[in-house]
Specification:
The chain has one domain. It has two helices and no strands.
Length: about 55
């Protein structure tokens, strides 16, 4: 996963979502829970629209 150096909120939310998925998988995997993560490129959110990437 790449970090967007000019946008801490965008990077932190992407990394946080991946870390949460990893935790769910580690904690509940033995109970049959399967965790999958879809990481799309830029999604038109307010944070993305305010970033330099959207320009």
């Amino acid at each position: 996963m790449l970090t967007h150096l000019e946008s801490a909120p965008y990077s932190v939310s992407k990394h946080g979502a991946l870390a949460f998925a990893a935790w769910l998988s580690a904690d509940y995997g033995e109970k049959g829970v399967t965790v999958q993560v879809v990481r799309p490129l830029g999604v038109c959110t307010e944070t993305y629209e305010q970033s330099d990437v959207a320009a």
